[in-house]
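Researcher: For the annotation table, I need structure tokens for TolC family outer membrane protein. Please keep the output clean. Sequence:
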Amino acid sequence: MEKIIEKAVSENPEVQARFHAYKGAEFDEAAAKGRYLPNVTVDQVFRNQERVVPGNPNNTNSPNQQSTLTLRQMIFDGLATPAEVGRLDHVAKSRFYDLQGQMQSIALDTATAYYDLLRYRRLVSYAEDNYVVHKQVHEKIKSRVDAGVGKKVDLEQATGRLALAEANLLTETTNLYDVSARYQRLVGELPPANVVEVQMTGDGLSESSDQVLDAAYKQNPNILASIENIVAVEKSVSGRKAPFMPRLDLQGRKVLDVNDASRNSILAADTLEVTASWNIFNGFTDKNNLDSASEELNRAHDLRDKACIDTRQLVSIAYNNIKQLNEQVAYRKQHQDSIENARLAYRKQYDIGQRTLLDLLDTENEYFQSRRNFTNAEMDLSTSYARTYAGQGLLLRKLGVTRADVGEYARDEYLDRENVCKAIAPAQLVVDKAALLANAKPWEGEAFKPKGPEKATMKFTPRILFQANSAIILPESYADLDIVYDVVKEWGNDKIEIAGHTDKRNTSKEKYNLLLSEKRAKAVADYLAKKGLDASRIVVKGYGYSQPIAENDPINGNDANRRVEVIRYQSVAE
């Protein structure tokens, strides 16, 4: 994993873009320092000058040329140059930390992709095993039904569970493909056939969430980049004050091509001069530039505060996940081992006639889910460690990954002075299990008395459209049916009535409409069952046109009466 991450942070184009921005900023700083050095130029002038002799009507034009060596040295420019050099120095440092932040981000994304590869390769293997068992059991049940010794309802249940197993297999293979593509984007190549199983640990990680967060505030590169940006803008504000002060320049000038004819000319004389200039009025440009820089400084402080908030959220959540997942992994492992033992026991009991094939499918499904949950918890734990280290700016160091062409900057005092982040993490929620048990109702008592009668407590009418005189659902209604599924799924184990209704016209036949309304309700129930809803919860009824909610037209009926209602039944106290 270390080699893969090292390749990613060395070659990923997002990192390289930050690297070149950082190197460019260093060259900008070097270019600004050039203002301290003299400027030397050679100016070549070609002129055609009229020679005027008093009293001579035959004045002539005399072409000549002049080469001048000029040296200019800035003496004082209102401290604009020191401010610009300082600004670009901190811009380079900000770009450096921005590069470090991108390297941490790509390292985290690559580590996440690595663990997701481990995750989904395992899950594909589990889904394959689960599919094979479901297929084998389905074929056994089918053969019994075909022979007339099995129940068709058992075959229906086995068929539904086989479909779920196939869907799970498709889901996991799709997830594996997705993470392989993500790995390729990060690393630049397809993942290897064999990925080493490696788990990240919390060696050296503080036991206190506040201490973990405090370390992140001091080392997170995004926070450090925002602080360097503040100091850079402060230098920019100083530089914008330069036009309000005088400017002094030293200039030396020497004519290179002096001949005897021009030796006594004033143009041929060597000069050395100091010039001073004052900016009296510049159309308020300088004042507005200063005000603009002040606003940019306010913005830089806002970005620093945002970096603090983002870091606090990232590290607090990741560290809390570590605490929770460490405990959860143990429970998930215990659940997996227990279900595996129960699965083996069910198979032995099936051999002696104490369990059915459907019982075996139940344990297979629970075993698949337990393995999936344990794997997810394991990989989530490692990913949470990686996310915590990345939030602290320590992930690369933890993995021993470096870039030879990226050095380090010494930590200056202003990094701590400008860091106003507060290391206060949300309190971690700890469940008091003893208190829960002490306050719980007795296992035997009121909570386990037989339930009262079931009554309709909720009803809604989704927009479900059918083909004319048919129970075939139109495709545009599938999205609404999916919403119905999500709603009734949240109702737990409560009974659900799917009620079909039609409208009435002069030509309507009672028996036909009664049957059509029931078929339509059945079509909706079948759709929900195929989505995964327990079919035993559903009651299908057709009411024909006996329960209109609006007046029917003798010729056209009424669209409002052609409907399917979903009704929730709950047990209520007598």
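Researcher: And a one-line annotation?
Model: The CA atoms of residues 14 and 65 lie 55 Å apart.
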